[in-house]
Amino acid sequence: MSEMISRRAFLKGSAAAACTVAASGLTAAAAPAPSEPQLCTLLDLSKCTACEECVDACKEANADKYPQPEKPFPQMYPARVPVADWSEKQGIQDRLTPYNWLYIQTVDVEVDGEEIEVNIPRRCMHCVNPPCVKLCPWGAARQFKNGISRIDSDICLGGSKCKAVCPWHIPERQTGVGLYLDILPSLAGNGVMYKCDRCYNRIAQGELPACIEACPEDVQQIGPRNEMIEKAHILAKEIDGYIYGETENGGTNTIYVSPVPFDAINKASEYGKGRPPLKPAADSMASANNIITAMAIAPIAGVAFAAGKLFKQTQKDT
Amino acid sequence: MTTPAKADSVSRYLYLFTVFFLVLSGFGQMPIFKRYYIADIPGLGWLAKFYITHYIHYLGAILLLGVCAYYITDYFMFNFKNKKLTFSGYFKTAVIAGLTVSGFLLIIKNFADYHLPGGLIIFLDLCHLILVMLLLGFGLYSLIAKKRWTVNRQDKIKNDSQNNG
What we know:
By secondary structure, chain A is an alpha+beta fold.
């Protein structure tokens, strides 16, 4: 035998194999750290009158977070890279922009021959497991333990991946602002992405988000997710309504209760850039996360393959 | 059942195949392939689809873990007595270990209810990127300079004594 397998080598191999198998078990053993309950908002759409008090309050409360781009913008390469400039259109309120993180979507829905107007405050859904945060390649988007997801404008490079992976394509870009200007402004990055951060700074001080505080109709309420879901089901039963946001994208922290079905709202709505639909949304992160078990099994397969080689070699030598 | 020589050959090609797709899908986590027209090349459109590159990166990680487990077990069972890791081998092993650990933590972060500090996530992202650049750079150097992962212990002793003598 050219490569004799001593007992010592076999023991070392077995120890290595045991370590590998043990390491593979880390995946299964790892458990989430106990965290505070995620904050969730419940919106009773039957109450919303589209007065836009919430939109105005949002603008006022978050004005200091809005982009202040430097002009002229750097020439970007290649030429296909789109410039997104909203700085001259800051007054727009009928869609999402970097200067308007909340707008009212008004839909006339016909149900059983009756036309019903539904007004829907639209903004970031603050997903329970937000793909914008989890798939951001630089860690610029973050989720706080209370469930709020926020894009850090000091770190974001404006690549717009968060918008691409968001089931509702919520974040909006402003060119000419942010960290990319200090790195390779022509070749990498394109500004900063902006979206609702649920007034995280007000919440940290024990205050309500501006949109909730300003609403004269008490459309929204905020609280721990399980409580809001419980309330949503009670409300839906009361008004014979429909729920959106409980299971969409694996669950969100924005629960809408509507007196009309959401598929009817979807059919009647005009959607487009900055005007997201309320369509069914499968759990974006599930497909990749579901194969984690295979990650625990793979090292065991590798060890088994090596052991098979050892067995074959042993047979050959005897 | 495959012969030991065939198993080594299969594992080597599997390693190269895995690293190739891991690197490609890893860089695909950044929004660069569409910007720089690479995703416009027929057959490479998937590089601009973030959920596909994400899934392929996970599949690559699964394969890499399997291949690494095979090599570690094989080294200690078969080759420890006769073969020695070179500097190049130690370096690449350390880099792959770093990639595995940082990758593992980044995977954990992707589950609901797992919160890593923001600074740590940035550190892990940058670590993962820098380590893969090191692996690529050193891999290229090893290819050009014909640096192997391991050498025979007897050959090394012979070479060392020739150099000293």
